[in-house]
Design goal:
It is globular, with a radius of gyration of 17 Å. Helix 2 crosses helix 3. Strand 4 and strand 5 form a beta hairpin. Helix content is about 20%, strand content about 20%. The chain has about 270 residues and is an alpha+beta fold. It has one domain: Jelly Rolls (Sandwich), CATH 2.60.120. Strands 1, 4, 5, 6, 7, 9, 12 and 14 form an eight-stranded antiparallel β-sheet that branches. A four-stranded antiparallel β-sheet has the order 8-13-10-11, with no helix packed on it. Strands 2-3 form a two-stranded antiparallel ribbon. The longest helix is centred in the first third of the chain and has 20 residues. Bound molecules: 2-oxoglutaric acid and fe (ii) ion. 2-oxoglutaric acid binds next to strand 7, strand 13 and strand 14. The site of 2-oxoglutaric acid has 10 residues, from strand 7, strand 13 and strand 14.
Length: about 270
């Protein structure tokens, strides 16, 4: 059994000193009920429409970032991983423009911004476990390692996860190693085999979240998504990630090349 006993918070108008201190100490923070069922449903519907459009038009990449396709429990084609989602979904756009969401930038130095058109943009992940699933887990990794792939210095970044389904051990669930955002660079590079290692860690913390919850993690923290112990509908897990970053503005365009780390991400199944 993974540990789940960590403090969960409720978001008010502003981040509190306690919340900021918790985040700085542990490298993650969980806000329960950050948004409503209604907004969750709106976002889900918009991604279903977008999926239909991308399938019909056989879209393979957005600005150099591959769209990950697979099959659903019904055998229908689905999109498992949508890049740059906020550029195609009004409800997602509205969600990140909301003042509550904007307040999260305060967890980073002055001048932090939402990477809507940088890196992979806002990512929407849709996992489902079937016999032939193409996306049912994600091995251990840190998100900041991507900076190294680009040959850059690691810059502070947050990944803000909005849950669109309830998520816990029963459908896989996010596992994190609290405090690893304070590790040295060697440990960030070599603590585990990137994406290939799916094994349980005795110190891993299971994130137990409901649809509408927000779980933010520091880009340097080690995390993985476990495989659901069941097949089919009960394994469905949808979560959206909004990167908040600092540093030089590096926008993507249709001419952008596919980043090297996506060759690693192909190993994720
Ligand atoms: O699905 C999740 O909760 C985590 C996804 C993730 O780690 C990533 O996309 O980098
Ligand atoms: Fe990640």
């Amino acid at each position: 059994m993974s540990k789940t006993q960590y403090k969960k918070f409720t978001f008010g108008e502003h981040l509190t000193d306690e919340q900021i201190a918790f985040f700085n100490r542990n490298g993650f923070i969980h806000f329960q009920g950050f948004t409503t069922r209604e907004k969750v449903d709106e976002i889900l519907r918009s991604t279903e429409n977008l999926q239909k459009d991308w399938i019909e038009n056989k879209v393979e990449k957005i600005k150099g970032v591959p769209i990950k396709y697979g099959v659903d429990v019904t055998g229908q084609t689905i999109v498992h991983r949508f890049p740059f989602t906020s550029q195609f979904s009004e409800p997602v756009k509205r969600f990140i423009q909301d003042s509550h969401f904007q307040e999260l930038k305060r967890l980073l130095p002055e001048g932090a911004r939402i990477a809507e058109n940088e890196k992979d943009g806002v990512i929407f992940n849709h996992y489902v476990n079937t016999e032939s699933s193409n996306f049912r887990q994600m091995g251990w990794h840190t998100d900041s390692m991507r900076d190294i792939f680009y040959g850059k210095k690691i810059m502070p970044m947050l990944n803000v996860g909005l849950y669109l389904d309830d998520s816990s051990e029963s459908n896989g669930g996010l596992r994190i190693l609290p405090g690893t955002h304070r590790q040295n660079i060697m440990s960030m590079m070599f603590r585990k085999a990137y994406f290939l290692n799916n094994g349980r860690d005795k110190n891993e913390m299971l994130v137990d979240a409901r649809a509408g919850d927000l779980v933010i993690h520091d880009g340097r923290i080690w995390h993985r998504v476990a495989m659901a112990p069941v097949l089919g509908e009960a394994s469905r897990r949808r979560v959206m990630y909004v990167p908040i970053i600092v540093g030089a503005y590096q926008p993507k365009s249709e001419q952008s090349r596919t980043p090297l780390y996506h060759h690693f991400q192909k190993l994720v199944k």
